[in-house]
Task: structure prediction
Amino acid sequence: MLGDLEVGIDIAAPPRTVWDYVTDWERQSEWIPLTTVRTEGSTVIARTALGPLGFDDPMEVAAWEPPHRCELVHTGRVVRGTGAFTCAAAGTGTRFVWSEHVAVPGGPAAPVLWLAARPALQLGFAHALRRLRDRLESGAGPAPVS
Result:
């Protein structure tokens, strides 16, 4: 079973500024809770953990269209599927959207598991995007590109 999740937010910053910040992989821990990111060659590895409990989420870049769209393929054992970031000009700022299309484990129980997990994931992603917006609008993101 595949689960889809999409969250978006308007940010008072230009698309290039948003793009530069969200694709600065190692800085994602500043706005994505419980996650640290590192790169190994062309692989982006997000480690999500609470104390000693956690997992690595290795990803490969499948599409790279700066400053508008990045698609990643989740290649790990825990998370499989695709994720994407898009940045679109919206008024004087950016509409940023984060989407995930992932395989839900659990065999026949997968639809029930997704039904139970999706609201919490939606809240978590929305919280991360509010942190992203707040950091960029407070000037904590990258220096503006002229």
Remarks:
- The first strand starts at residue 2 and ends at 11.
- The longest helix spans residues 110-137.
